[in-house]
Write a structure and sequence with these properties.
The complex is a heterodimer of chains A (319) and B (201). Chain A is α+β, with helices and mostly antiparallel strands. Chain A has helices at 17-39, 74-79, 92-96, 122-126, 155-162, 200-204, 256-260, 303-306; strands at residues 61-62, 106-111, 118-121, 132-139, 144-154, 170-175, 195-199, 209-214, 217-218, 228-230, 243-249, 284-287, 294-295. Chain A has a single domain (17-308), classed as Oxidoreductase, molybdopterin-binding domain (Sulfite Oxidase, Chain A, domain 2). The chains are: A alpha+beta (319), B mainly alpha (201).
């Protein structure tokens, strides 16, 4: 299996150390504030969400793959979410996701692989990996975007542990199905459980990570804990949340939004300002926290690293 | 009860949605995406006021409280008021007069086309809402013109249907209420053909 190396990283992509220290300091301040909040009984968030138990993740390694754009506020990142398992309003996940229990948690890994299929406890799954901070742009298919300081590790590192066979062409992911705790699943808005997929080379790409935290803290329930995918050059819905199953499969799997509206959402769903959604334009986006719209970049600004994955493909057809 | 006495109170109540938006703006409560929030709220209230306005005639029939009609013009003008805020938010706050993007939107995006159509249909109704214009047009012609409100409401509901990603329950609710209100008119028309003392608009 050939893993394409990211081309040289432009110096502009490397976070300036001073900025980085500022960020660290901010995280410390934020952590302090959070600890203070936790010391109280339960603190109501601005949008009515209860602050959930969170852990600080120590010893985060910075990454040269991070953008130096300034991240959105923790408040924005945790209050404005799409997680249809809890409702289709952006505020629903922050309101209702606390109903989901994430402990205990295990991930089923199976399919075309040389190791034994297994239910792996989340701690065992994470143990061998070193967590890093990856500050990525996130572009939603609805034409808004954020910059998020994720905490995670390369999905490729996890894939290698399970030794996919030569027939493993795709990786399929499945979200938790638990309508008792996930009220959105009680309505057939999408076909539950939520499923997503990547081509194996996309999954092995160094930019693709599994995330467990944001701003140096474990993910809040509205962000898809304890384990979620982040693929920064694809529309946000590809970055599946609260993963319970990872399968190595031979044939291209369908993904939930594609099943729901095949003419509007493709398998690849790469950010592309030239391929409009049939009902709205993808040429520009609103960066949360900024007044003026900005132009959307090809592959969400990651073209240097990922464009070669799609050499020779018709991106109008394989949208 | 005299409608005249309650009219100022209804007027004040119609301003509550705007007041709440201003309140949220002052208290940092417009969510992480304030422009989207304002757009959605003003759009919701445009549709709601259109439906409330269209409910007056059936309500008069059912309750025989015929002076309700004295509220109809005010409610209709509030629908237009929220439509202006909705369209203004889109034009100024969302796209900040980026006319290349807007033109692309109005022509290419059918949900924008539908919404814009509904807005344009409301303009002659607002313009001809004064007593003097009613007299100038004459009752019959004025009533015919004001049937455009059916088209505007329909365009508004279609606009909503075409912009949601997949959860069609909210626009479906508006569509069902609109269907009920228009169905009531068909019913009255069929059952009382020829004896139309009350206006059908």
């Amino acid at each position: 299996m050939l893993i394409k190396q990211a081309p040289d990283i432009r110096s502009s992509e490397i976070t300036d150390e001073r900025l980085y220290r500022n960020r660290r300091q901010f995280i410390q301040t934020a952590s302090g504030a959070m600890a203070g909040a936790l010391a109280g009984v339960t603190v109501l968030g601005r949008y009515g969400g209860v602050v959930q138990a969170q852990e600080t993740i120590p010893n985060l390694r910075p990454s040269p793959l991070s953008t130096d754009e300034s991240p959105n506020s923790y408040e924005d990142i945790t209050s404005y979410n799409n997680f249809y398992e809890f409702g289709s309003d952006k505020g629903d996940p922050a309101r209702y996701a606390e109903e989901m229990t994430i402990d205990p948690w295990s991930v089923r890994v199976e399919g075309q692989m040389n190791t034994q299929a297994a239910d792996v406890d989340i701690d065992d799954l994470l143990r061998p990996h070193t967590l890093e901070e990856r500050v990525y742009r996130l572009r939603c298919v609805e034409a808004w975007s954020m910059v998020v300081p994720w905490v995670g590790f390369p999905l490729g590192d996890l894939i290698k542990r399970f030794e996919p066979t030569s027939r493993a062409n795709f990786v399929k992911f499945t979200t938790l199905l638990r309508p008792d705790e996930m009220r959105g699943q009680r309505s057939p808005v999408l076909r539950w459980p939520y499923v997503e997929g990547l081509r194996l080379d996309e999954a092995m790409h160094p930019l693709t990570i599994l995330a467990v935290g944001v701003y140096g803290k474990t993910l809040l329930n509205q962000q898809g804990p304890p384990l979620r995918l982040v693929v920064p050059w694809k529309y946000g819905f590809k970055s599946i949340k609260s993963i319970v199953k990872i399968e190595f499969v031979e044939d291209q799997p369908r993904n939930s939004w594609n099943i729901s509206a095949p003419n509007e959402y493709g398998f690849y769903s790469n950010v592309n300002p030239e391929v409009n959604h049939p009902r709205w334009s993808q040429a520009s986006e609103r960066r949360i926290g900024k007044f003026f719209r900005i132009r959307t970049q090809m592959f969400n600004g990651y073209a240097d690293q990922v464009a070669s994955l799609y050499d020779g493909m018709d991106l109008q057809r394989d949208f | 009860m005299g409608v005249r006495r309650v009219k100022p109170w209804v007027f004040a109540a119609c301003l509550i949605p705007l007041g709440l938006l201003v309140w949220r703006g002052a208290t940092n409560g417009l969510t992480a995406n304030p422009i989207e929030f304002i757009t959605h709220r003003t759009g919701d209230w445009t549709l709601r006021f259109l439906l409330i306005t269209l409910a007056i005639t059936p309500l008069r029939r059912v309750t025989a409280w015929s002076s309700l009609v004295q509220l109809r013009r005010m409610l209709g003008l509030f629908a237009f008021f929220y439509a202006v805020l909705h369209f203004g938010t889109y034009l100024v706050l969302d796209f900040f007069f980026a006319f290349d993007l807007i033109l692309d939107d109005v022509v290419e995006r059918r949900y924008v086309t539908a919404g814009f159509t509904g807005f344009v249909l409301l303009i002659p109704l607002a313009v001809t809402s004064t007593q003097r214009m009613i007299r100038r047009l004459g009752g019959a012609r004025w009533r015919r013109l004001h049937r455009l409100v059916y088209g505007a409401a329909l365009a508004g509901v279609v606009h909503y249907f075409w912009l949601v990603k997949v959860d069609i329950r909210p626009p479906l609710m508006y569509a069902m209420i609109l269907g009920l209100l228009l169905g009531a008119r068909v019913w009255f028309w069929l059952s009382k053909k020829g004896s139309g003392v009350l206006s059908r608009a």
